[in-house]
Batch of 3 targets.
Target 1
Amino acid sequence: MYCKTCGTASKTIASKISRRAQSGITKCNRLECGHAWHVETPLGAPGMDDAETATSCGCGEITTVNALLVEGRRLSADTTAFGDESFQAWSIRVLEALDGVPAESGEASLVRTATNAAKSQTSSTAKKIVDLNKLLVRAITAVT
Ligand SMILES: [Zn+2]
Ligand SMILES: [Zn+2]
């Protein structure tokens, strides 16, 4: 869907019904860019323009991960502008946020995979950011 913050379309990685009422349902759409939007679909009025009615998401379980993903996207978009220090600070917070998020069944825990990715001797910082962003996407999908 169209992301108002990014000003561009972004893939929906997960969505769930966050509110169900007499008048209609509200869906929480979690986008790949890290932003999430609540879209209300009034009963009997399908086909409304999503972007028109979208309001910012405040779902507690994903706000931290969302913020980290937004930051991660910014870091990876501009790899020359940030220093190693900002990567270190960000990756520590990513590891904390992923701790306790369950992985898909049969998969290694997200925090373990993330720790390996962040500490890798062979990956560049840019590659590490990409890897950690992917894990944040998986975490958002996992808790949705
Ligand atoms: Zn966005
Ligand atoms: Zn939400």
Note: The beta strands are 2-3, 8-9, 12-21, 24-31, 36-42, 55-56.
Target 2
Amino acid sequence: MDKELYLKISKPLATCILCGASLAEAGKHPSALVVPVEESEGEEDDLPRREDYCPQCWEKCKGKEFFGYWLAKREPLKPRKVQNRRERNARLAAYFDYFYHQDRELHASRLFFLAHLLMRYGVLRWLRTEKDPENNSERIICRNLVTDEEVVIESAQPTDEELVAIKREIDELLLGTLSSAPVEGTSEESAPEAGTAPTSSDTPEA
Ligand SMILES: [Zn+2]
């Protein structure tokens, strides 16, 4: 197939052409090239067209004739390194928020550490510290200056190991390497289907 023809094939679809299942996070999924038959002559869509399928629907298409098919690779967007303070604060605040709405007791050390970082960066403002003499606990009440919400943080005493792990986690968060996204340059090639063309895989859209 010549390059010009190939370029006319549309971008990967966000959903399966048959059932509408989301394909963006599907990892790999079949894509087919359909070249219209003679009868469609004169119609606007007489260009080869691309059809994306979820694996289940692809099974149903066995026996259908395609010009070619291949496995499309859909990679999750890779977060990039933060570029400025604003991005840094937004990413840290979102990270904090995520755990704040999870099991707070379980993530107490992480929340405590993140809260102090966010206070230093002016995202949270300290309001007061409340002590509970009965169980010798302490909580910090802050205001989130972005959402104007009050945030309550239980005091925690992270161990050295926890601190190291949390700091590394935050470094990776800000570098954009925290997610399980594949490391750049090492993503495997998709295996071409036997006896078909084209065998090229999709590159993610910029
Ligand atoms: Zn489907």
Note: The beta strands are 28-34, 49-52, 68-73, 124-132, 137-144, 150-154.
Target 3
Amino acid sequence: MPAQNIHIGLCGAGIGGLAAAIALRRAGAQVTVLEAAAELGEIGAGIQMTPNVSRLLIEWGVADIIGTNLVEFEELNMRRRDGTKVGYTRMIPNVRRDLGYPWWVVHRAHLHSGLVQTALQHGAKIHTNSRVTSLDYTSSSSVKVQTSSPTHPTHTFDLLIGSDGVNSIVRRTLFPDVKPAPPTTNCAYRAIVPYEQIRKDPIARELIEKLTMEVWMAEKSYIITYPISAGQDFNLVLSHHVDRLVDKVEEVDVEEVRRQYKDYDPRIKKIVDMIPEASRWPLLVTGPLESWSSPGKNVVLMGDAAHSMVNHMAQGAATSMEDGAFLGRCIAQVVQGRLKLAQAIEVYEKGRMPKAHFKQQVSFLNGAIWHLPDGPAQEARDKAMSLELGDKPVLRSPNLYGNPTTSLCVYAYDAEEHADAELYKYINGKEMMDEEKNITKIMADKYLNWFLPEDYEGKQLRIEAKL
Ligand SMILES: Cc1cc2nc3c(=O)[nH]c(=O)nc-3n(C[C@H](O)[C@H](O)[C@H](O)COP(=O)(O)OP(=O)(O)OC[C@H]3O[C@@H](n4cnc5c(N)ncnc54)[C@H](O)[C@@H]3O)c2cc1C
């Protein structure tokens, strides 16, 4: 097949859509992003950028733009509600040493702005004030999109990607019966308190002596905190239950937040009392869906539109970004004339759908662990986790942020490497592997190549993607 010029439209300039725009430009496609909002931006709260996506931020040059607003923290302390430490993960230097990339925490506005700048530098076009109002993907192989924009009301694309979040119009058009829903009455407050204010409090300031992530676990609630904005702001996500299902963001009275956490460790309680304003966020879950695409594979979903998940593993935006990176590798094969568009989308769905489902599962699981009711289950969790406080390596722990298994499957995952392996399999009809040693590239990368020196001569197991 000859090389192809393809024009891809993204509906939605959230974290996922922008990551996809960068990856697709790197793949050589023409990219237009349509965003409903009048101005590009993100809500005022923090977000974790775990090593599975910090690797993308570094590779794509986004990390250089965000600079010191990406904060790396020294340690993760897992605590009971009363402050008792039951688990511990040393983050610096272990995360970079063992997973190869940092675990960052960042203000969403800084992340979003870094992604916008990088997407524009890579040549993506972004139209604001362009709410997608309808799409026609059946009249021809291309997709016609109507928007609310007075200046650019219609667009035609070879492929439309629905990166428009949990209430996606693209998903509602393809799959009108799918309804994202809160699986339980669990939701989360989000809030920020300036470090300056905490420093003035003789009790609370102990918590900010070092840059740390802290988790306080309790029955049906928890608090997770971390530094953002070059270590100037203290970000809190406060999990709780209400007496009804919540499906929209709600403004709440800070007195409600204070009451909810009144029995917590006095140090964090002091900081909760400083929260100037807070909102309650729903935790909506989408799917698992049977398909993410139109029958002609000219429309496809990604991110929260396809697989929104509960927040307990900090993987919603990260999974959206992985989708974008994976799509980029698939579309590169189309641009280079090796695959048809429909084939590339088939590889994307086959590779990413099980991964997104796994992320949803592991997120539920961590929520269940952190919210365990007081009593024998919580005591057993704390006992198992507390092995981390000793000086011996631990092979298994209920602290999924530090557990070796979840670290490898979630935080060491490389979406681009996964895409290359899936594409190789699709094109060549067999797995990418060292035929002599009978070891697949995916297994070699996970268990062996990570520790081999870059210049190791016998690096035959570092099989290059020969697509
Ligand atoms: C309390 C809480 C904490 C979280 N913490 C983390 C974390 O630490 N790490 C992490 O990875 N994830 C976290 N998440 C999840 C994360 O916020 C989401 O998964 C992520 O923002 C989804 O990104 P997205 O780009 O898919 O969708 P969105 O961010 O929803 O972006 C969708 C975009 O599409 C636009 N849009 C919508 N409709 C249209 C339309 N019709 N036409 C044009 N544009 C449209 C919207 O304006 C928006 O810009 C958390 C979530 C919650 C609730």
Note: The CA atoms of residues 160 and 299 lie 5 Å apart.
